[in-house]
UniProtKB/TrEMBL annotation:
<protein>
    <submittedName>
        <fullName>Glucosamine-6-phosphate deaminase-like protein</fullName>
    </submittedName>
</protein>
<dbReference type="GO" id="GO:0016811">
    <property type="term" value="F:hydrolase activity, acting on carbon-nitrogen (but not peptide) bonds, in linear amides"/>
</dbReference>
<dbReference type="Pfam" id="PF02585">
    <property type="entry name" value="PIG-L"/>
</dbReference>
<dbReference type="InterPro" id="IPR003737">
    <property type="entry name" value="GlcNAc_PI_deacetylase-related"/>
</dbReference>
<dbReference type="InterPro" id="IPR024078">
    <property type="entry name" value="LmbE-like_dom_sf"/>
</dbReference>
């Protein structure tokens, strides 16, 4: 995860297909504001004990995703597709949907100053970890992987080129799925903003998945539009496959002996996203 020292706030202004940043003094994180990923985050028990989570409407795969309709899933880094959507991926495959997995970056900046995981190694390792995870999920044959090769940790400043890349491969009947545009990680938020903006302009269905929001948010947090939230329940087998797939991301779940840094994904983080449910936001734009 890219680290940015909070000393200014950056506002994104849309003007047609162009983006520009307006920087203003603020005590919050310069991109994600008050959604910064810090400390251990909200406990799993807090989420499990929140009645609001139990009463969310169900996401019905058969009704929401017509069989054989193509689904484009945007992962800011190779692992986000499993962390956020490991259950959904399995259910889409069972539903007969062709899936395009778009790696926005190759996640090369996850280990600053590391000799064990320098950027040139991660550029190879992380996409391979993703491919292995898809095999564990049992869906590799139904997934086409596309890499956009944007710079890890700097997607916010590449939004205009990101948007232009979508024109080359998004089709008129695609359903798009992206990270939440206020997920708390700069790359996740930039990805969510670009994809939802494209969906709105081209009148495409678009879903957003919560990943890092489980860390910084609290139950009933007003920064999340819970009225648009849908809960996808996983079977015991689907959850087991998702949990096994997460173990494929060795670079992210093991300590870095060359820097003495702990794993990028802590045990608490993995526990929060290894539950028998996933939550998606559907905000109608039409």
């Amino acid at each position: 995860m890219a680290t940015i020292t909070p000393n200014k706030a950056v506002k994104r202004i849309d003007k047609g297909n162009a983006w520009r940043a307006v920087i203003t003094p603020d005590a919050n994180h310069p991109i994600v504001g008050n959604r910064a990923i810090e400390g251990n985050g909200t406990s799993l028990d807090s989420w499990k004990n929140w009645s609001g989570l139990q009463t969310l409407p169900s996401l019905n795969i058969a009704k929401s995703f017509a069989a054989h309709q193509r689904i484009c899933i945007f992962a800011p880094h190779p692992d986000d597709e499993v962390l956020g959507c490991g259950g959904l991926l399995q259910q889409l495959a069972a539903n007969g949907n062709p899936i395009v997995l778009i790696h926005v970056t190759n996640g090369t900046q996850s280990h600053p100053k590391s000799t064990l995981y320098p950027p040139e190694n991660l550029n190879v390792i992380r996409p391979l970890e993703s491919m292995q995870a898809l095999k564990v999920l049992g869906i590799a044959q139904q997934v086409t992987i596309k890499a956009l090769h944007l710079t890890d940790g700097n997607v916010f400043n590449q939004q205009e080129s990101f948007y232009k890349k979508l024109v080359d491969f998004i089709e008129p009947n695609d359903i798009l799925l992206t990270t939440f545009r206020r997920d708390g990680h700069p790359d996740h938020e930039a990805t969510g903003k670009v994809v939802t903006s494209y969906a709105k302009r081209h009148r495409l269905y678009c879903y957003q998945v919560l990943i890092w929001a489980w860390h910084w948010a609290k139950p009933a947090d007003s920064r999340i539009p819970w009225h648009c939230a849908l809960r996808l329940d996983l079977t015991a087998e689907q959850l087991q496959r998702k949990s096994q797939a997460i173990t494929c991301f060795k670079s992210q779940i093991t300590a870095d002996d060359s820097t003495d840094n702990p794993p990028v994904l802590s045990a608490q983080t993995i526990a929060r996203i290894s539950q028998p449910w996933e939550v998606y936001l559907y905000e109608p734009y039409l």
